[in-house]
Amino acid sequence: MTTETDIAGEAERWNHHPGEVMLNPLFQWPLRTRAILKWYAAYWLAISTTTVTIVAAVIVYFILLPPLDSMQTWHWSWMLRVYLANAIPHALIAGGLHIWLYHWRRQDLRFKFDARDQTRDNGHFTFRNQIHDNMFWSIVSGYTQWTVAQWLVFWAMANGWAPAFLFPENPVWFVLMFPFLVVWSSFHFYWVHRALHVPWLYKIAHALHHRNINVGPWSGISMHPVEHFLFYTNFLIHLVVPSHPIHVLFHGYMQSIHPVFSHSGFEMLEVRRGKTKAKMGDFFHQLHHKYFECNYGTVEMPWDRWFGTFHNGSKEATDRTRKFKKQMYT
By the 8 A CB rule, do 250 and 54 touch? Predict the structure, then answer.
């Protein structure tokens, strides 16, 4: 059992330590109904990265996404609109958060996990600049492969080669598909991420993402093209499970805009000092970027707990993770 002293020992290493990392209580026994309801209310009934991505998917579907039947044949007009449906929201959110948190420094170091700034004049990064490196790989490889995956899904749906439906058909499944995609993405991400930490594949691909020990908003999908390819195989689920185009958009935003927030480097977004705050960062994943061989999955599903790679933010977990890492690389 984790003690306050154990948490305090790890907290000394951080500018901001939010306390013990908690996983989805749905998978703990005995079941705690109140804790489960509180957990899901925070994700689905309040302003969160999940609800932001759902709202973005609905707005973009009605404003920018072309009709599904127009995607039966390849044409630059609808393909460009799908690209813009991805690029514009991601660039606005990643760019806006970067300006607020790192350029204007409106929160200073309040709620920032790591007190250090983004890296500049460092040959470890493309262009010797962490921000430019992250933007380059996110835009050139990330936006491209994210969009290509959706082109294939939309084209298959439009031609009847992938199961699709339009609202208000199947309203119950329309709603249930959102949490289903969260669970599926967590499952897929955990195993792809574990594979990327196999030493030879880590060296080829994943090391590029892990240049970012002190992460920022543009770090979220700053990845090697090989990693992007593996990451976006997640969309193959839409070739099997009936989906609405809004689900495909939501899936893309959850995969690519949610990481903007989880890699922001801050736990909270402070709109006014001492007053309005919104949950933003993800200490669970911040621990992964600091200690590497832990927390491969997400807090939604307890894959890391089940497979012995969970870091709960304590000194004991850090010691265990470092021992595991030493065993892996010796």
Answer: yes
The beta strands (E) that lie in 206-300 are given as 268-270, 277-279
Domain ranges of the chain: 4-328
Calculate the average pLDDT of the chain: 93
Record the tokens describing residue 124, joined without a space: 């470890």
For residue 51, pLDDT beyond 70 = yes
Which is nearest to 217 in space by CA: 190, 253, 250, 257?
Answer: 257
- Rounded to whole angstroms, the Cα distance separating 98 from 89 reads 14
Ramachandran area for residue 308 (φ above 0: left; ψ -120 to 50: alpha; else beta) = left
Q: Is 110 exposed, middle or buried, given 0-12, 13-18 or 19+ CB atoms closer than 10 A?
A: middle
Residue 168 has pLDDT above 90, yes or no: no
Q: 316's torsion region: left (phi>0), alpha (psi -120 to 50) or beta? A: alpha
Q: Which two tokens stand for residue 204?
A: 């080829």
Find, among 148, 154, 164, 159, the residue nearest to 244 by Cα.
Answer: 164
d(CA 62, CA 65): 7
Contact 149, 230 (CB under 8 A): no
DSSP conformation letters of 17-28: --SS----GGGS
Bond into 67 cis (ω within 30): no
Q: Name the packing angle between helices 49-63 and 33-44 (round to 10°).
A: 40
Tens of pLDDT, residue by residue over 71-107, are 999 999 999 999 999 999 999 999 999 999 999 999 9
